[in-house]
Amino acid sequence: MADDGSVYLGxxxxxxxxxxxxxxxEGGLLAEWREPYDIAIVDSWRYALFRLLAGxxxxxxxxxxxIAFDGTSSTVVLCDGNGHPVTSTLxxxxxxxxxxxxxxxxxxxxxxxxxxxxxxxxxxxxxxKQPGADSxxxxxxxxxxxxxxxxxxxxxSDYHNALKLGYDVTNLRYPEWVNTLPVAPWLPHVxxxxxxxxxxxxxxxxxxxxxxxxxxxAGTTDSIAAFLAxxxxxxxxxxxxxxxxxxxxxxxxxxxxxxxxxxxxxxxxNLWLAGGASNSxxxxxxxxxxxxxxxxxxxxxxxxQDSGLDYYPLPAPGERFPLADPEMEPRLDPxxxxxxxxxxxxxxxxxxxxxxxxxxxxxxGATPLKSVQTAGGGARNPAWTAIRARLLGVPVKAAAxxxxxxxxxxxxxxxxxxxxxxx
Length: 423
Description:
- This protein is α/β, with parallel strands linked by helices.
- It contains 13 helices and 16 strands.
- The strands form 4 sheets. It has a 6-stranded mixed sheet with strand order 3-2-1-4-10-9. The chain has a 6-stranded mixed sheet with strand order 13-14-12-11-15-16, with helices on both faces. Strands 5-6 form a two-stranded antiparallel ribbon.
- β13 (264-268) and β14 form a beta hairpin.
């Protein structure tokens, strides 16, 4: 894309704060900034949004061409006709809709991601039973609600956020079994991620000195935005996020879904983003070591050598991927006298989990792994990177851009063409 002076804004509302990234037409990062917010309070979302808009550098304001949002997957709110919440907000990890999820099992195909208690659809059915729901008109995901603050069109989502609402991302429509539910009138219209929704509301453009023709485009989820930021574009390319947990995402020419392992596929244009998440990761490391200790001990590890330990590091009982066992116990014995060897075994154990995860995706029909980019704090540990490369058997490198807001800015810039649009 030629650099015509236009700039593009990505706004990321994740679990640990709200972030903004401003990029040029060529994808160069121009500025990044962040604001704290309370993910459980909708008014806090709005306040953080307006603070982020106020933080756009003055020299770029009149060149802003498009904005896109990402939000936490399945964080949802039921609103009236003016976008005001009429019930409580349910967060991404809320599991209270167990009864509703069980009822859905008689309607939903077994492989559908909407079947879990934390899905958007199960939450919608739970919210429909709460006081105040009789005045509802729109059911929105976090990114949907935030974007509507700017474009004013309530009741619009995207097919990344809507996947766990039962939306059929292959045929780009709600299936009939969703349309027959009593909550169907509240379902949002679903757009292609990056699709033009509308220009800024005039009062927003005036308040923040932004162009009135600046477009707001359909958004995505925070985890997909992080994948987009890494820049993987070919089947077989993957991104592993080494944060509190271990999240694997593999770009595939074929779609795979296996809810028993927490595996499902998001559509990216004509490709599929298959993934799963292990409970292992940085959280278990921090139970034993500080950041300084991790850095110092890692220097003593020879990543070319096997530790001789057979660990399965978990912060607490229970694993979801690549093994589905809610009762699985952490395996961290025996503990050697040397802390560096103990850490070596833990890093190696997590690398084995990662390798097993990508093997499982391939066994289920995904495109075989060709390379891995790494995001998250673990990407800064050279010993861990070398151990992972040895066990994965493919090139491993740090992602050029690790912030989800950068990926969302790319979506604002390129629109649906970022992955060639739908079939």
